[in-house]
Specification:
Two copies of one chain form a homodimer.
Chain A: E1 2-13, E2 16-20, E3 30-32, H1 40-52, E4 58-65, E5 79-87, E6 99-101, H2 117-132, H3 137-151, H4 163-172, H5 201-215, E7 229-230, H6 232-243, H7 249-258, E8 262-268, E9 278-282, H8 285-289
Parallel strand pairs in A: 1-5
Antiparallel strand pairs in A: 1-2, 1-3, 2-6, 4-5, 7-9, 8-9
Helix pairs in contact in A: 2-3, 3-4, 4-5
Chain A binds a DNA duplex (30 and 30 nucleotides) through residues 231-233, 248-251, 253-255, 271-278, 298-301.
DNA sequence: ATAGATATGCTCAAACTAAGCATAAGCGAG
DNA sequence: CTCGCTTATGCTTAGTTTGAGCATATCTAT
């Protein structure tokens, strides 16, 4: 069997959460796991750094796939794909490089200016049609509920973490290009906006986004994406870019400060309009102090 | 390369969180991923059911390993190991079968009766010695802090989720058998109690326990371990068995009920002493309704 | 000086938690 | 058949955490 490593490498630049791609945006960087690599992580790290020149900071494993349709086209060997999420500071965006906003692939995921037009004007109507096209009432109801949960319709809340569920739902409804490859039935007009990727790379990207959106809530991983010093608003904008939603400024600050995640550098930002903001830096010490995750059990003292 | 599937299969029986083992408890069940398997999950499922006769309910991927020391002894080929966590209802514990309490392997993890003696009497003193044995002051402090975080010393709280960190720390300190295999230096007397396993199976088990302890807090997975109907105390005892800690009874009930996770069956338990308890069943409907995870961002309405 | 921005401090009410009191309803022993 | 023990279940109370928003501070540009 062959083993492939696939990277979802993320950086945030000026409000755009970006992912590193190859082939002008149609695939995620990947490469074979070779004998000379000490470990999977080392392999991936080697690999991405060689291919892109970017040092990768934080890395975590995402998922391992080996579905029946994964096989090497030449050798007809089966392929195992191990995907990773990596975070990096992108100082200068080389225009020629493969960084793309992830909302390019998932335009319905950006709710920073409210529900995007593509969602209300295109996606939801098509999903409504898909619901209506179900054979029986039970099936209709099942589809309706899946849509309601994933897309926050019928009075439900939009949950930014459900990136993968939404993609899979659209896939199942035949509304993304990848779904039509095996059985080319629908024309492009019937698809939903958002760029497709090779094989199942867009699904892997969805998995990475979902993981990151979940993780920023309970681990201080955002700082892997920030420069050495930053203003609280800059930090907030980065979180917002990732989450695809706006946060309440004052409460966000309270949260950050009470968790003692940052400390003042003493300097203030040479600003773009408005009162100058204090600059902060991440308190690395906190990592050691608080590996602690947030428990949620009603513990007993006795 | 070869691909192996390894299962951490969990069931709870009478207050013992148990894991399925082979070779009289010295290894986790595992088997090669073969060409006939549709997917990894299918492979694992097939495989465990064939080997143990147990139907596996819930399954989730844990981690994929491929360290340098993982290779097949015969063919000298490199081995990738994909581990899974599975939950099942163990109706009757066959004494001959391979179920073992996981506290057999991690006796320091059971805090249901307060910090266990093995921790206070054996482990902490040896860790203190390990700290003292560090070369410089900086190293001593680093070790001290790791111990404090992982084991809740120096006024910190015990965090039941840090199962893997604790195991790795003990490994690093040379206090578990697995750590002494390559360089057999210390004698058995210097080790910490708790049964070792082959290769890195105990580490995989630790990963599974940690994942489960985290997961029960935000997803209703406990019910995969419960029979069709149960009392709230039974449910509580199961959670406590997994978490290794006691929970506050009244608050636990409030939590369960307000989340609408269960509904009364209308019957009451033929009890073991005390007022008869109402029987409940899991409301499967809730799964569809609430895929929603608990967000933790200070969102903004505007 | 004034308008337009952003930064920052503070308040208030609603929701959620941790702890524990109190009562209910079985069982078995005397 | 009543006491003592055990478990079930309802409810209270105080402390904390969140969600929202008001008010003020400090810059820049005009």
């Amino acid at each position: 069997m062959k083993v492939d490593l696939i990277a979802v490498l993320v950086a945030v630049f000026e409000g755009s959460p970006s992912v590193l791609t190859i082939q002008t945006g149609s695939a995620l960087p990947s490469g074979p796991f070779a004998l000379e690599h000490r470990s999977l992580q080392a392999g991936l790290r080697d690999w991405v750094e060689k291919q892109t020149g970017h040092p990768v900071g934080y890395i975590e494993q995402l998922y391992t796939f080996a579905d029946r349709d994964r096989f090497d086209e030449e050798s007809d060997e089966r392929v195992i794909s191990i995907s990773y999420l990596g975070l990096t500071r992108k100082e200068q965006p080389l225009f020629s490089s493969g960084w793309r906003s992830w909302y390019h692939y998932f335009p319905w995921e950006d709710h920073r200016d409210g529900p995007p037009a593509v969602l209300t004007d295109t996606i939801l109507p098509r999903l409504a049609a898909w619901i209506a096209a179900a054979p029986g009432k039970a099936d209709k109801d099942a589809r309706r509920q899946r849509v309601a949960v994933a897309f926050g319709t019928e009075g439900r809340e939009w949950n930014e973490e459900l990136v993968l569920q939404r993609y899979e739902l659209l896939f199942g409804a035949g509304l993304v290009k990848e779904a039509t490859r095996k059985h080319p039935a629908s024309s492009d007009q019937e698809l939903v906006p958002g760029r497709a990727m090779d094989a199942d790379h867009r699904r892997i990207l969805a998995t990475g986004i979902a993981r990151l959106r979940t993780k920023i809530k309970y681990r201080p991983v955002v700082f892997e994406l920030m420069p050495e010093s930053f203003t609280l608003l800059h930090l907030q904008r980065t979180v917002e870019a990732l989450a695809g939603r706006l946060v309440h400024k004052q409460n966000f600050r309270r949260l950050i400060e009470q968790q003692e995640l940052v400390e003042e550098t003493g300097e203030t930002a040479t600003d773009t309009g408005g009162r100058p903001a204090k600059l902060f830096r991440f308190r690395h010490a906190i990592l050691a102090e608080r590996t602690a995750a947030g428990t949620r059990l009603p513990l007993s003292r006795t």
